[in-house]
Write a structure and sequence with these properties.
Elements lengths: L8 H7 L2 H9 L17 E5 L5 E4 L3 E2 L7 E2 L8 E6 L6 E6 L5 E7 L9 E5 L4 E5 L2
Antiparallel strand pairs: 1-2, 1-9, 3-4, 4-8, 5-6, 6-7, 7-8
Length: 134
Amino acid sequence: MSYEIQKSEAEWRAQLSPEEYHVLREAGTERPFVGEYTDTKTVGVYSCRACGAELFSSETKFDSHCGWPSYYAPLAEDRVQYIEDTSLGMRRVEVRCATCGGHLGHVFEGEGYGTPTDQRYCINSISLTLKPAE
């Protein structure tokens, strides 16, 4: 897949911390309940930590109690990319930044949360940067 922002693995490693690189470039997962945005209520926009593309709004963030920040929709469908993920013996849908291809997390649906979309974008805090509203 071709992305608007493309860098070599060496450039990504120089830009990102080892933990950020593991999640964003190697599709890793941060441990639950430790991310800086898991319980954040600050109003603002969440952007990709790797490239700065705006991805999610605090307006769609909700308490799922799953251990990671959860949103019921991205800012716009063209902001994220969906990839079928059959790793770990499960069938899931991976969510990536559509601008740089950074791994964000996964999206689940039909879990019974009272959200307008019946979806839960389960996103790693370390993949995001919050820009508070002014």
